[in-house]
Fold this sequence. Notes:
Layout: E1 3-4, E2 14-19, E3 26-31, E4 40-45, E5 66-71, H1 89-103, E6 107-113, H2 115-126, E7 131-137, H3 142-149, H4 151-157, H5 159-174, H6 176-185, H7 190-195, H8 207-215, H9 219-230, E8 243-249, H10 257-264, E9 270-275, H11 282-285, H12 287-299
Parallel strand pairs: 4-5, 4-6, 6-7, 7-8, 8-9
Antiparallel strand pairs: 1-2, 2-3, 3-5
Helix pairs in contact: 1-2, 3-4, 3-9, 4-5, 5-6, 5-9
Amino acid sequence: MEVQPPSLQDNTELQCTMVPTMLGPCAVRLQSAPDSGNLTADVYLHGAAGSWTTFQPLLSTSPDRTRILIDLPGWGDSTQGAQLASATVEAMAGAVVEVLEDLGYTKWNLVGHSMGGVIALHIAAARPERTLSVAAISPTVFGAANSVRRPWRGLATLPWFTGMLLIMRSMAFLGNAGKVLIRAVATTPLLQLLLRPLFADPAAVPPHVIRRLGQEARPGAFCAAARALAGYDFATWHSIRCHVLVLRGSADVFTPQSDLDHLAALGPHIRTQTLPRCGHFGVAEQPVAVQHLLEELWQR
């Protein structure tokens, strides 16, 4: 496994490598801790509208453990050879575990945003002996899954999520023309208008964060993630035993409070919290608060 120099967009402390998985090669960034012999890592899993860069606001401080940021198959720098037709939740979780085992880590704390939170929770259920904790930030779970299965009903219950799903399906149907159209919109003020519902206060979000969301949109990968979510058996999560923190923003249009209530019913080891004045991307809107809650979770 050859470690490559970071690209120009990378944080200078990050190293990048490609790791083969059952779903195709995954681009992996590592931010090493002073104690490089620690075989426990903090692992960050992005959602279906992003890449490892989703978590850049959390990387400014020196880590206590190595941080591992994975571009999941189909996103970021992991698009070449991605097997999206086989990308179930179980398969994506398996690919993450393949990466971690290839890197030599035996235990991990998982931080997942949106769809990444679903994958993190599945890993906790499937690998309880190795998963120390999970932080699921605005996970797209029960409400989003129902919207994928019944989009016309979803327009009434989760209109913004369902609207994005229908747009992505249309762009995926157009193939390369859809990708070109999305890239074109990403260079115009229209993008901020379209993504406005994702943030409680879009004006307070750095413009480059919003531009990056448009540039990293992957219609085919988004639709594959939606299919995976619709076919997932959430009952699997009853076997989770580690501490879990579930966060959502008070203005989150993708993760309703009812989803947190359902997750909290899994047991006393599940803690839920709502961040005030925050939307779906709490990592970008309130990184200090999110980092503080992560550190509290890890200390437990």
